[in-house]
């Protein structure tokens, strides 16, 4: 569904414009309802889900037994912080200030289409991540058969 990398500017009010290439996809996939939440795996990154996709993720995460600390941590970062946003007339969504601050997202950011969701990275975190390379020890069994 979503793929590609787009440099994004976040305005002084904390809004970002949905790139033109994604506007129809977002409207069709979720009637312009997105959910913004933390990436539990990466610092400097927020996730933006189409609402229907978010409901699947939310239900899976909430089904985890709360007696385990990692489950509670995942539930807090994903479900507890989830905020529904809808584009305004100019196709801008308002990102929660607390989430922008925690992820270090300021004026310049990078929006990545990752299939079923978007990742919004601070410019610095994205650059650092892109500069990392995979070493031989990083290759998993699932990756070994890829023909890249």
Keywords, separated by commas or semicolons:
single chain; 148 residues; alpha+beta; Chemotaxis protein chec; six-stranded antiparallel beta sheet; two-stranded antiparallel ribbon; 37% helix; DNA-binding; DNA-binding transcription factor activity; repeat; MraZ_N
What does this structure look like?
The chain is of the alpha+beta class and 148 residues long. It has one domain (2-144): Transcriptional regulator MraZ domain (Chemotaxis protein chec, 3-Layer(aba) Sandwich). Helix content is 37%, strand content 28%. The chain is built from six helices and eight strands. The protein has helices at 20-30, 51-62, 69-80, 97-103, 123-131, 141-144; strands at 2-9, 15-17, 34-38, 45-50, 83-85, 92-94, 108-115, 118-122. It has a six-stranded antiparallel β-sheet with strand order 1-7-8-4-3-5. The model has no long low-confidence stretch (mean pLDDT 95).
């Amino acid at each position: 569904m979503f793929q590609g990398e787009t440099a994004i500017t976040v305005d002084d009010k904390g809004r970002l414009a949905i790139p033109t290439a994604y506007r129809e996809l977002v409207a069709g996939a979720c009637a312009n309802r997105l959910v913004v939440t933390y990436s539990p795996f990466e610092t400097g990154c927020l996730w933006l889900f189409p609402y229907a996709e978010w409901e699947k993720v939310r239900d899976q995460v909430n089904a985890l037994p709360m007696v385990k600390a990692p489950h509670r941590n995942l539930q807090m970062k994903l479900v507890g912080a989830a905020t529904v946003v809808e584009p305004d007339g100019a196709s801008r969504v308002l990102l929660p200030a607390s989430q922008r601050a925690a992820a270090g997202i300021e004026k310049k950011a990078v929006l990545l289409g990752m299939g079923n969701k978007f990742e919004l990275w601070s410019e610095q975190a994205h650059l650092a991540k892109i500069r990392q390379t995979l070493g031989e020890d990083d290759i998993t069994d699932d990756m070994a058969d890829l023909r890249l």
